[in-house]
Amino acid sequence: TGLNIYDVRTKCDPSTPLCYTILNDIEAYLNRADVQEELGVDVEYKGCNMEVNQRFMMAGDWMRPYVNLVPDIIDSGVRTLIYAGDADYICNYMGNRAWTLELEWSGKDEFNSAPELDWVSKVTGKKAGIFRTYDKLTYLTIYEAGHMVPYDQPEHSKEFINHWISGGKTFAL
Predict the structure, then answer these.
(1) Which pLDDT score is estimated for 170?
(2) DSSP 3-state helix, strand, coil percentages of the chain (rounded to 5)?
(3) In this predicted model, what pLDDT tens digit does every residue of 143-161 receive, in sequence order?
(4) What is the DSSP letter of 133?
(5) pLDDT in tens, 49-98
(6) What are the residue ranges of helices labelled H in the chain?
(7) Which spans of this chain does the record mark as coiled coil (predicted)?
(8) Which residues have C-beta within 8 Å of that of residue 168, sequence separation ≥ 6?
């Protein structure tokens, strides 16, 4: 179709291997000496390193079922947030929602019976997504966002990340 598999609302830009020309700008910014000094790092940033990807594939570590580790993480008490943009095809919200519903953990039944609720942003006043939460697991779909949610929805991303980091249990803000 020529559409960007990371954001089906746009055409894929063939000048970059991952459809997003902004990735070049992000890489240039994160490799600036002043930015690296502020972050306290001294490495070359590479957004998607195809050589590393290839090495994972050749070692047999690509597309492994790491999802099987998630139940122990949740059951050990770690608050877990799974989120996806509604325009991302490659990591789509329907598939992410489906695997969270099938996840075998101690709160599965309660999570599955919990309602999906609207998330209305306090910052923009807009309906920003929907979420389901129970105990330590939350699933969130962000509206009008592709794979790069913070790029597509910077205000909403900042809001939900800050809310989550500060200990917010739900998005009924």
Answers:
(1) 60
(2) 40, 20, 45
(3) 999 999 999 999 999 999 9
(4) E
(5) 888 889 989 998 878 888 999 999 999 999 999 999 999 999 999 999 99
(6) 22-30, 33-39, 50-59, 70-75, 93-102, 108-113, 149-152, 154-165
(7) none
(8) none
- Euclidean distance between CA atoms 81 and 171, whole angstroms: 11
Measured distance between the N- and C-terminal CA atoms of the chain, rounded to whole angstroms: 38
- Residue where the block lists tokens 């877990």: 80
Q: What is the CA radius of gyration of the chain?
A: 18
pLDDT over 60 (residue 173): no
Contacts of 31 (CB under 8 A, 6+ apart): 44, 45
Q: Which domains does the chain have, with CATH numbers?
A: 17-63 (no CATH), 66-166 (3.40.50.12670)
